[in-house]
Amino acid sequence: MNEEDNFPIILLCEVAGVTRSAYYKWVDKKKTDLEVENEQIMEDLILLYNGFKGVYGYRVLKLYLDRIYEKKINHKRVHRLMKVAGLKSITRRKKKRYGKSKPEHIAENILKRNFKADKANEKWVTDITEFKYGNKKAYLSAILDLYDNSIVSYVVSHSNNNQLVFQTLDKALIKSPGATPLLHSDRGFQYTSNGFKQKIKAANITQSMSRAGNCLDNAPIESFFGKLKVEKYYLEGNYQTFKELKDAIDEYIHFYNHTRLQKKLSGLSPIEYRYQYQLTA
User: Integrase catalytic domain: which residues (predicted)?
Assistant: First the structure.
């Protein structure tokens, strides 16, 4: 209420027990800089959340906000603002585990969950994951570089066989000529085959394998497959043809390598991080 409602301000202040100066200070109260910034951050959070179709939680969105505002924004603040805005990321599905065939060759677990690499092409991890389209299945084989989490090479195929992993390795070696990394995998039949053993020996690559039934020994590539499925495959889904599925995988891997920011990489994408390494090497 005010004088326009036929109540003198001085009378209202006397009744309320406050001074006129305090009343006018309350009327003229402006939002603090923090409140204004929180509102702007929330607007940007909503734009980012919608732009990425709701697949990212506060940890990833914080990295994009850091870049937008050119400063570090506390992750707890981002989490709180997302709760206020009612923004929730999509929950990742658990991966099904499949039985393994009898291996021909078992390599020692040299990697031993030491997922840190000091340079590019020092340590690669690889695996295969399954997708469905229409009433059929397709398989993605990929190699990830532990230095920058980039996908070095990948192949999408109708068949889960030895040729799939051979092609993936060939593409990686063509892309990175002269590379002689430690190559870690699980004990899938493709990696334990004599043919694969001969192939990596010819390339002067050291082979490492996870312990039996221990997916955490190959966690980085498992994590990548999880991101791909949650952020692309499950989200869009309903792929009817092999081409539709492959195009979606191609699109996501390009996005992942060039655009998707990662906390481990100082808020950079894998390719940005590798480029930074090349400048300082």
Answer: 115-278
Q: Check: CB of residue 81 under 8 Å from CB of residue 41.
A: yes
- Contact by Cβ (8 Å): 187, 213: no
Inform me whether the pLDDT recorded for 259 exceeds 60.
Answer: yes
* Residue position matching structure tokens 């499950």: 234
Predicted confidence at residue 276, as pLDDT, reads: 86
Q: Do residues 202 and 169 lie in contact, with contact meaning Cβ atoms separated by under 8 Å? A: no
Q: Name the residue among 163, 17, 165, 93 with its Cα closest to residue 154.
A: 165
Alpha carbons within 13 angstroms on the beta-carbon side of residue 237 total 3
Torsion over CA: 142, 128, 97, 245 (sign): positive
Instruction: Give the Cα separation of 43 and 166 in Å (integer).
Output: 47
Q: And the tokens for 77?
A: 């603040």
> With the CA atoms of 225, 186, 171 and 269 taken in that order, what torsion angle do they form, in degrees rounded to the nearest 10?
40
Q: Which two tokens stand for residue 79?
A: 């989490």
Full-model pTM: 0.73
User: Is there a contact between 129 and 168 (Cβ–Cβ < 8 Å)?
Assistant: no
- Of 35-39, 135-139, 156-160, 267-271, which gets the smallest average pLDDT? 35-39
Q: How many CB atoms lie within 10 A of CB 274?
A: 19
Distance CA 123, CA 120 (A): 8
User: What does 32-94 look like in DSSP terms, one character per residue?
Assistant: -HHHHHHHHHHHHHHHHHHHTTT---HHHHHHHHHHHHTS---HHHHHHHHHHHT--PPPPPP
33-57 tens-digit pLDDT:
888 888 888 888 888 887 787 888 8
